[in-house]
Design brief:
This protein is α+β, with helices and mostly antiparallel strands. The protein has two domains: 94 residues, 2-Layer Sandwich (Alpha-Beta Plaits); 66 residues, no CATH class. The protein has five helices and four strands, in the order E-H-E-H-H-H-E-H-E. The longest helix is centred in the middle third of the chain and has 27 residues. The chain is elongated. It starts with a strand and ends with a strand.
Length: 175
C-alpha cells in the first residue's frame, strides 16, 4: 500500500512552525515534521497531545521505591533479624539512601526502555530519511494527501507564503 505525501523544506524554524500551524488550521493531515534540533512551539503547532512518558517514569520510580523499602524491611525484621546495639529492626531512615537510588534506577532505565518499545526503536533499524540535509540545516514538513479534495498547488502556494525552500510530491510505501 502506498500513500502520497507532500514534502516541504524550510530554512528557518519560525517558517516551519507557522506553516505547520496553518496546515493544521486548514485541516491537512500532518505526518511529521523533521528538524535538526528541538523547536519550541512545534508540538503545539502540530496539535500533539502531552506525552505520557512522565507518568510512566513516576509509576516506575514509585514501584522501585516501594519494592525496595518493602524488601529491606522484610529482610531486616522478618527474614534475618539481627539486633545490633539495641537499634530497632524497622529503621526506615537507614533505608532512605538505598531506596532513593533504586527509585532513580527504576525510573531512568524503565523510561528509556518504555520509550524505545513505544517508538519501536531497536538496534539495526534503518532510518527513513525523507530529505537530505534535514539533520544538518533544513526543517521539513510532511503532509499526507488524504483525499481527492487535497489541492497540491494551493498547499504549495501556502508553503511559498511561508518562505519554503522547496516542496515536492512523493509516494511512500507502507511497511
Amino acid at each position: 500500500m502506498s500513500r502520497r505525501l507532500l514534502v516541504a523544506s524550510f530554512a528557518d524554524e519560525r517558517d516551519v512552525v507557522n506553516a505547520t500551524n496553518e496546515s493544521r488550521e486548514r485541516g491537512y493531515k500532518i505526518v511529521d515534521v523533521y528538524t535538526p534540533y528541538a523547536v519550541h512551539g512545534l508540538d503545539s503547532a502540530m496539535g500533539l497531545r502531552p506525552t505520557r512518558l512522565a507518568w510512566l517514569t513516576f509509576f516506575l520510580g514509585l514501584t522501585g521505591a516501594v519494592a525496595k523499602l518493602w524488601y529491606q524491611i522484610w529482610i531486616s525484621a522478618t527474614s534475618w533479624p539481627v539486633n545490633v546495639g539495641g537499634k530497632p529492626l524497622k529503621s526506615i531512615p537507614a533505608f532512605v539512601p538505598v531506596t532513593f537510588e533504586i527509585m532513580v534506577l527504576f525510573a531512568g532505565v524503565g523510561s528509556v526502555i518504555g520509550f524505545l518499545l513505544y517508538r519501536k526503536l531497536y538496534p539495526g533499524k534503518k532510518p527513513a530519511v525523507l530529505y537530505d540535509g534535514v539533520t544538518d540545516n533544513r526543517f521539513v514538513l510532511v503532509l499526507e494527501e488524504s483525499d481527492a479534495a487535497f489541492d497540491a498547488e494551493e498547499v504549495q502556494k501556502m508553503f511559498r507564503s511561508h518562505h519554503a525552500v522547496s516542496s515536492e510530491e512523493r509516494v511512500a510505501q507502507e511497511r
